[in-house]
C-alpha cells in the first residue's frame, strides 16, 4: 500500500491521460505523466513517412524564440534527412519505444549533424514512442541534455504498452484530415545532384552515408565493398566537391539549403 501511495501522482495523471484521449489536451497530459517517471527537457510529436517532410504536430517546451523557430524551420527544410528516427521510419520500424542508440549509425555522435544541430535542438539523447499508421509513423519524441540511463529506459518500457495504445486510440478518435501539402526536398542524393561535380553513384552513396554518421567500416558493410574502396570514394568526392572533410561536406550540402 505504501508503494502504491508513493505512485499516487502518477495514477492521478494517468487518469487525466485517459480522460483526454481524442481531445486537444491529450498530448500535454501524456507528456506530463511521462515526466513523473523520467525527467525530460523537451518533447515533440511528428508524423514521419518516406519521401515526405515530417509533419510536426505539437512542439512542447518551445518558448517561441526566433532561434527555436529557425531550428524547426531548418529541420523541415532538409535537416530531417539526417534524423536517425526519420530514416528508421522511412525504411520500416516496429511499434515500440526506441532509443537513439538503437537507430543511429555507429559514428552518429561524432557527425557534424549531431554536433552542430541535433545537440542544440534535441539534446544529448532522445527516446521515441513510435506507432505505424496509414499516414506514416507517429512518433512522440522525448529529448534531454543528458543521456537516459538504463533504469530510466526501464521505467518507460514498463508503461510502453499503454502509451502506444493510448496514442493509437487518440489518433483513431480524431476527425479525418486532408492530404498533407508539403513537398519533400528529395533525398540526400537529390541535394548532391545540385553540384556539377559529376559524382558517381558510389560516391553519392558514400557521401549520403558519411553525412548520416556512418564510419568507413559501416559504409563498406552497407554498400558491400571494402573499407579501402570506401576511402577512395571518400577522397574522390571530397576532391570533386572541393571540401576537406565531413564538416565542410555538411556545410556545403545542408546549410545553404536550410538557411
Written description of the protein model:
With 259 residues, the chain is of the alpha+beta class. The protein has two domains: 2-173, Beta-Lactamase (2-Layer Sandwich), CATH 3.30.450.40; 188-258, Arc Repressor Mutant, subunit A (Orthogonal Bundle), CATH 1.10.10.10. The chain contains 14 helices and five strands. It has helices spanning 2-6, 8-19, 26-37, 66-77, 84-91, 100-103, 112-121, 150-173, 188-192, 201-212, 216-223, 227-241, 246-253, 255-258; strands at 42-48, 55-59, 96-99, 125-133, 136-144. A five-stranded antiparallel sheet has the order 2-1-5-4-3. A hairpin with a 6-residue loop joins β1 and β2 (55-59).
| Helix content class | 40-55%
Tell me the CATH topology of the largest domain: Beta-Lactamase
**Cross-sheet strand order for the largest sheet:** 2-1-5-4-3
Q: Major sheet: size, sense and barrel closure?
A: 5 strands, antiparallel
Number of DSSP strands? 5
Whole-Å distance between the termini?
56 Å
The top level CATH class name of the largest domain: Alpha Beta
CATH homologous superfamily identity of the largest domain: GAF domain
CATH architecture heading of the largest domain: 2-Layer Sandwich
Uncertain segments of ≥5 residues (pLDDT<50)? none
| Radius of gyration from the alpha-carbon trace, in angstroms | 20 Å
Q: Can you tell me the overall shape?
A: elongated
Mean pLDDT value: 89
Strand content: 5-15%
Number of domains: 2
Structural category? alpha+beta
Reading the helices and strands in chain order gives HHHEEHHEHHEEHHHHHHH
Counted by DSSP, the helix tally is 14
